[in-house]
């Protein structure tokens, strides 16, 4: 009989898990149903920067996971036959005003490059060179250019992966579901037993796992960014992502689209309201880099809910004492980077079973999943 696998959540983790469940050896023998209500999805709201290598985070497991995610992207995009409108290695520029800070950053980049092939080449750029690469800027600072840095359109990526999987073994159901204490999935048609359930519900993992008697260490964080329509330079499709010191990130996409953000609002909970003062603050940051901008350039705002754990590290894998249920959450502000690797690993585990050793990438799940108090 065909194995039945459910995925709850259609963000980057759920979509890549679905994609790999449709392409990995043995995937032809499974039927996959993905449930998603699309509410507050972090993936579609995200800025799309894939450039983890200069992070100051000391967590080595997180760094290995983020590096593996960045490494996976070119292959995933190639295999899924997605284009440069979805993902492109335009390069990323991280700026520093003070020359000694710039040197330190360059040294760090050179060191990290030794073990990160996807980083490509590393160069120091003068302010004029930064401006030549991103002519939108009026006020540039010197920076370090990483040629392998990339930008991804999270919504387009998810749509592309899910379309590929739907052509094979995936059915998508746009609805909110929950779990029973026995791990059945309760849909609008009633409770249903699956051989495996992947809970890829981002910030909502806590409420989904609660009926199992598990308290997940996950809290929501609100993130907002703005979309702007700017002059469409012929080179814009290839313009690097800018991570300017002291300002919001500046992410040019093709066809004159510019993304500026994002905020990290810890008291935002699951609130998806656009806050006009935040929009004004994001716009002011954009305008300091590009004074010609007016509010008429703003074409939209995006709000999403990130998932955080107490130590800011993601967790994923089979739930202890509930091996038929796998979970991933806590991907925080770098989930577009780590998500494809997490989704790929979960798909393999759901297909082949066993007790995976992912200690290279994360702490034991018991760190984040505790029995609920009676
Ligand atoms: C403004 C912003 C900017 C960001 N920028 C970047 C960036 O530049 N680079 C980067 O690497 N990362 C970035 N991130 C982080 C990244 O977007 C997230 O970490 C990542 O998308 C999380 O993916 P996920 O699949 O775990 O969760 P999500 O994308 O949130 O998906 C979870 C899905 O599960 C669904 N769901 C939940 N509960 C249920 C239920 N009971 N039934 C049905 N469906 C359910 C939700 O509706 C949602 O669609 C950003 C995030 C935000 C908010």
UniProtKB/TrEMBL annotation:
Signal peptide (from-to): none
Keywords: Flavoprotein, Oxidoreductase
Cofactor: FAD
Pfam families: DAO
MF terms in GO: oxidoreductase activity
Transmembrane feature ranges: none
Residue ranges constituting the FAD dependent oxidoreductase domain according to the UniProt record: 5-347
Top-rank taxon, per record: Bacteria
GO CC terms, sorted: cytoplasm
Family: Belongs to the DadA oxidoreductase family.
Record PANTHER family: D-AMINO ACID DEHYDROGENASE, SARCOSINE DEHYDROGENASE-RELATED
Protein name from the UniProt record: FAD-binding oxidoreductase
Record organism: Levilactobacillus brevis
């Amino acid at each position: 009989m065909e194995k039945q696998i459910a995925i709850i959540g259609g963000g980057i983790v759920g979509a890549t898990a679905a994609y790999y469940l449709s392409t990995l050896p043995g995937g032809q023998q499974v039927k996959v149903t993905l449930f998603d209500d699309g509410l507050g999805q972090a993936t579609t709201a995200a800025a799309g920067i894939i450039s983890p290598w200069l992070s100051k985070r000391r967590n080595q497991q997180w760094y290995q996971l983020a590096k593996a995610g960045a490494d996976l992207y070119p292959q995933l995009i190639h295999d899924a036959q997605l284009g440069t409108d979805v993902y492109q290695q335009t390069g990323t520029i991280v700026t520093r005003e003070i020359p000694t800070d710039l040197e330190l950053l360059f040294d760090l980049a050179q060191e990290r490059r030794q073990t990160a092939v996807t980083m490509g080449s590393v160069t120091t750029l003068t302010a004029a060179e930064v401006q030549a690469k991103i002519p939108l800027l009026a006020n540039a600072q010197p920076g370090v250019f990483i040629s392998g840095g990339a930008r991804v359109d999270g919504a387009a990526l998810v749509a592309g992966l899910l379309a590929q999987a739907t052509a094979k073994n995936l059915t998508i159901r746009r609805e909110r579901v929950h779990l029973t204490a026995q791990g059945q999935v309760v849909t609008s048609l009633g409770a249903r037993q699956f051989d495996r359930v992947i809970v890829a519900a981002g910030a909502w993992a806590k409420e989904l796992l609660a009926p199992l008697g598990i308290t997940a260490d996950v809290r929501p964080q609100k993130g907002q960014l703005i979309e702007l329509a700017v002059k469409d330079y012929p080179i814009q499709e290839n313009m690097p992502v800018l991570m300017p010191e002291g300002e919001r990130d500046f992410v040019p996409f093709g066809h004159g689209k510019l993304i500026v953000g994002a905020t990290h609002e810890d008291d935002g909970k699951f609130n998806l309201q656009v806050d006009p003062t935040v929009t004004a603050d994001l716009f002011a940051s954009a305008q300091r880099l590009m004074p010609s901008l007016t509010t008429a350039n703003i074409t939209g705002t995006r709000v999403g809910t990130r998932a955080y754990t107490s130590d800011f590290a993601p967790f994923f894998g089979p739930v202890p004492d509930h091996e038929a249920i796998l979970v991933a959450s806590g991907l925080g502000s770098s989930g577009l980077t780590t998500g494809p690797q997490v989704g790929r690993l979960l798909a393999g585990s759901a297909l082949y079973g066993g007790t995976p050793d992912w200690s290279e990438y994360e702490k034991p799940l018991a760190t984040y999943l505790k029995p609920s108090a009676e």
